[in-house]
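Intended use. Records like the one below are meant for learning the mapping from a protein sequence to its folded structure. Do not use them to infer anything beyond what is encoded.
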Amino acid sequence: MDHKRAEGADPARRPAGAPQAQGGGTQSIERALALLLQVGRTDGEGARLTDLVAASGLAKPTARRALGALVRTGLLEQDETSRRYHLGPESYVLGTLAARRFGIQAQAIDGLVRLAQASGDTAFLSVRRDVHVVCLHREEGPFPIRSHVLQAGDRHPLGIGAGSLAVLAALPDDEIGQAIAANAAIIAKRYPAYSPASLREAVARTRKDGYALNPGLLMAGSWGIGVVVRDPRGRPVYSMSLAAIESRLDAARRDELVPLLKAEAAKLERLLRGTS
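Structure written out for the chain above:
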């Protein structure tokens, strides 16, 4: 008999009232979810199989099978070099969906609406994920000509786009260097208007000006401004930004809009700290 087949036999073929095999059914689900949570608690460093086995008390073959199932569903991914397990893209999607009810999107939405209505343009909320930034929400303003440079779910390397640049510039210098180096290959391939040198210059300019500017580098004619939003521990994790056609983000108009962005970012930080 094929033992793998027997181990995962179709429950519909099991006689009524027959006990489930050890490790099947509910028990297997609970084991897999416990491992998923353990990986999530590693704070981005990833988890080794040996550490997960020790923490869970599972036999190594059992843990490996459960982890394999989580990798196949996209809830986990395994680094090919380090062999460590990390949260996968489907975990991020689930977290983003949950955030609509419990997280920062629910807290940020009023401010994004105010920004979009006051400016007439498009407001964005983005979040850092390792050396990338992901757009969580896009709020359209009433101005009829819109910038389509960024959609909810879009992911770009740190520094690419106004909101992403605002986060990059707020990081310590060593983390900035690490992020630029980590993304160098993908930037050279997919973002020809950028280079490591230009990103460092943009970081310096952002720190000097107090806000990030994307002068149409990501998409010709689409300009953006962005400011960082810090989490309750003071870490630069989020950004709020505005995008518009070039003629609507000249220096005079930026002088009007940047204070609005900073005010909404400060409100959001207070909400995140629970001090609103």
